[in-house]
Amino acid sequence: MNSGNTLQAVLFDVDGTLADTEQDGHRIAFNQAFQENDLDWQWSIDLYGELLQVTGGKERIRYYIEKYAPDRLGKVDLKDWIAYLHKTKTGFYETLMEKGNIPLRPGVARLIRELRNKKITLAIATTTTMENVTALLKSTLGAESIDWFDVIGAGDIVAKKKPAPDIYHWVLKELELDPQQCIAIEDSENGLQSALAANLPTLITISSYNRSQDFTGARAVLSDLGEPDKPFTLIDGKALTKQWIDYDELKGLLK
Ligand code: XBP
Ligand code: MG
């Protein structure tokens, strides 16, 4: 393991952190997959807020069936059927991303550019699939941006999704870094719990579905990463020098 303890890597969550993908991305794609399969399931904006407590699309569909469509529980090959529905959903999500209607959140592109210039390692730790990460990066930063991330931990690569620490453990192992040399950027309580359980200092940029969650333990809780001409709002935690997050501010958060 590398012994230095300055900032070496930034680990980004995807959904809600890089972009606000849930309401107008994933939710729509789930509904399209249900319609395609003649299911009268409609995940409204409100209902989806409840379903988001369960991370992972397949896990979310199963939770929905258990609670709202229990008649399907007896279905032969239920697991395979859920996986099939989810695969269909991923296809719709990729098509939605190709349209390019979901932008990156404030400050994300600027920070990634700066970190690359400073040769700070970039990584991703997400619950969503690799296909979805690729689709979002392609439509926002361009296809070449996928290679900017040294490690991408996504979807079923680990057995237990967030809030379990498994995905962060996996990414840290691939990076061969100690958690104290890194910072995680997350938007949800499940994501924060996952990062903290892996001993990672964590910055929260709250996303639209997660405004009233518990972010105890985060180094700072911000409205977003901010831009020099569009400052973030500090909601909780360590006072910062600037009103936009850059390399120096991330380093300061580690202390
Ligand atoms: C977000 C999730 C994902 C997405 C849907 O996690 O929980 O399940 O909602 O994507 P994160 P999939 O913020 O950690 O990226 O359907 O591909 O799971
Ligand atoms: Mg998230």
Describe the structure.
By secondary structure, the chain is an alpha/beta fold. The chain has 2 domains: 9-20 and 103-253, 3-Layer(aba) Sandwich (Rossmann fold); 22-98, Putative phosphatase, domain 2 (DNA polymerase, domain 1, Orthogonal Bundle), CATH 1.10.150.240. The chain is built from 9 helices and 7 strands. Strands 3-2-1-4-5-6-7 form a 7-stranded mixed β-sheet. Helix 6 (130-140) links the parallel strand 2 and strand 3. Helix 1 crosses helix 4, helix 3 crosses helix 4 and helix 4 (78-98) packs parallel to helix 6 (130-140). It starts with 8 loop residues before the first strand and ends with a helix. The mean pLDDT is 96. Residues 13, 15-17, 187-188, 191 line the site of magnesium ion (MG).
In this entry the ligands are: xylulose-1,5-bisphosphate, magnesium ion
The CATH architecture of the largest domain: 3-Layer(aba) Sandwich
The portion of residues assigned to helices is: 40-55%
Work out the radius of gyration: 18 Å
CATH class of the largest domain: Alpha Beta
What's the CATH topology label of the largest domain? Rossmann fold
Q: Looking at this structure, what is the CATH superfamily of the largest domain? A: HAD superfamily/HAD-like
How does the major sheet shape up?
A: 7 strands, mixed
Can you give the mean pLDDT?
A: 96
Shape: globular
Q: Structural class from helices and strands?
A: alpha/beta
Alpha plus pi helix count? 9
